Amino acid sequence: MGSADKFACCRWVGALSKTATLTDREMQVFTLLAKGEQNQVIADQLFITERTVRAHLANIMTKLDLSSRMQACLASYVFIHDRADTRTGPRHSRDGV
Fold first, then answer.
1. CA proximity to 79, closest of 24, 7, 14
2. What value does the mean pLDDT take over residues 4-15?
């Protein structure tokens, strides 16, 4: 296994810096991926067709340089949780440390 192949499984990490390239609708689809929803469920929630969801997913994967839905799901999950942590601020223990 070459050094480039060694980290191919973690390609989704680099995708996080490219999320600003997504359209508003692509971002909506991207964030729903974090829940592991099927295309039809995403379509129903956004009032679009499943074919349109597939088109958005293809665009998302191209723009974020991802090669699988799993990578897109992982990137989405981390993206959502990073945003939640940023909004709530640092967590402190009960004893103030």
1. 14
2. 61
